[in-house]
Amino acid sequence: MEKLIQTDWHVHSALSDCGSPEATPEAIVAAAHQAGLRAIGITDHVTLPRHRDRPALTRKALPADLGGLQVYIGCEADTFAPDRFSIDREYAATLDYVVMAASHLYLPMVDKPAAMTPRTMAELIVRLTRAAIGSGLADIIAHPFGVPESPFTFQEIVGELKRDEVLSLGRAAAEAGVAIELNPRYYRRAPDAAGWLFGCLMETGVKFALDSDAHHPSGVGCRGPIYATEEELRAEGITPELLWSIEDRASYRPATSL
Ligand SMILES: [Zn+2]
Ligand SMILES: [Zn+2]
Fold it and tell me: Which residues are close to ligand 2, an ion, with C-beta < 5 A?
């Protein structure tokens, strides 16, 4: 059977404030080989202007011999408000691709509802995600409805979503050629909510980007007990045909290793 997890499009290096000091480009590449991946993307946070040199620094620090692994350099950008993003087109054009977060509600620059409830959070993330999809900046929407440092759980927020809201987001993304991140961690942590959310999205024809969002090399390729296994993902209906790859990007550029 074809291996399902062959790529990992959302990996942090030590350059991200939240990244482990051990997450050097060399260690990430070695970890990707251990995980049997064919391609990875290193995507450090670019939230503030002073973060903008991170991708270029990573590109420079890549080992000369990648051992056949395709390595792409992107970033995890932010949606601050429906008309405000942490990067612009000119900057995006310097990267291989962009993972765009639309649920970093802990950031002070991100719009907040007057009262934070699971429903107001769900509504806000729907709005921000729709804007990210339409921004022309995003290739992948990071951790849909996953809110780091949230007062509410993923299940609570997803539990407030209406099926039509999810279908409409999925259709918009499919039409724009934007993928939605599928992190097997959500299937492990909240199988019912993840099954429902991704099940709805599967009906829309949107592609899923398999991502670990690893902050330490040990997580690259979704390895370890916090991630659902390939068998579990298959049981949820995830097939290789549903998965996004960088070749699906409209403005595809060749890999660093080519
Ligand atoms: Zn994030
Ligand atoms: Zn991340």
Answer: 76, 213
